[in-house]
Amino acid sequence: MTPSPTTLPTRPLRNGNAVTELGFGAAQLGNLFRETTDEASQQAVSAALDGGLRYFDTAPHYGLGLSEARLGRALRETPRQDIVLSSKVGRLLVDSPETADRLDDDGFVVPAATRRVWDFSRDGILRSVEESLSRLGTDRLDIAYLHDPDEHWDSASTTGIGTLVELRDQGVVGAIGAGMNQSAMLTEFVRRTDVDVVMVAGRFTLLDPSALDDLLPLAAERGVGVVAAAVYNSGLLSTEKVDRAAHFDYGTAPAAVIDRAVRIAEVCARHGVSLPAAAIQYPLRHSAVVSVVTGMRTADHARSTVARYRAEIPEALWEELAATGLAPDPRITADS
Q1: What is the count of structural domains for the chain?
Q2: pLDDT tens digits, residue range 158-175?
């Protein structure tokens, strides 16, 4: 993809495709934690496009297919070659009429007319990709990730990756990889399999840069792109002033983590930078990172996220965070 004057800067994957440095995470289009509307979803995607975003990430898991369907409709008028679409495999959606009168119990406010079944078999992945393409209204995925294969290494690293390689060879998917909330297994995917890109959620942030110890160095060595997600760590880094009641990694934040977030926010304030802006730009300092993906529910949210990405951040901020031991500078780590 060649950036246009209205497109945010891009970084290349090793297969030649490129993603914008800021990506649209579409979990909230699947009614994550609360309901949203088709109209609000359309407006959020439109605002993201207006802001220069061209990378959109979704999954069947998000709202039992609702996120994919809404995203597909919202992008219908956008030339397909102008955007990069990623979705995920591993959670197959199976009809569940016996639970259709209930709401989903996995964080999404949608009827439980289908249920998720872990499936990293060849048939399961082929079916999952086919159904995702149908919901999205497209003929290909630019990136396909194995979704949270934490308890399924044996099947995910064999038939899972093998099937994605087959689909990549056929041109049905572009780049392939895995997306997880941990860095250790992602590192093993990079070490042992033919992945092009991985998505690491919550493990490469201002509060938890642990992926610097294993995943990032190997990804840089192998030429594997890294997409950083959940850079706000579930909310603790999402506001200028730290909310002590905010979540950290989907749960109650430990006092020591809150105190560190407050100290980071104070450093940001001294340099005239908002904490959320620093949270978004921090992972992009590493050469292996190709994009930061954040969730966006509304047009205002999309516009504010672009503003955070574009905010000017002085080098002195990163130097102080590193010197005080609050957050290592990924640029120095990558260059060393």
Answers
A1: 1
A2: 999 999 999 999 999 999
Q: What is the DSSP string of 124-175?
A: HHHHHHHHHHHHHT-S-EEEEEEE--TT-HHHIIIIIHHHHHHHHHHTSEEE
The CATH number given to whatever domain includes residue 73 is 3.20.20.100
pLDDT for res 72: 98
**Residue 92: inside a domain:** yes
- Residue 166 within a domain: yes
Contact 176, 164 (CB under 8 A): yes
Is 255 in a helix, a strand, or coil?
helix
Domain extent at residue 87: 10-240+276-313
Q: How far apart are CA 208 and CA 150, in angstroms?
A: 19
In a domain, 321, yes or no: no
CA dihedral 219, 183, 187, 62 (to 10 degrees): -90
**Tens-digit pLDDT profile for residues 288-328:** 999 999 999 999 999 999 999 999 999 999 999 999 999 99
* pTM, full prediction: 0.96
Catalytic annotation, residues:
62
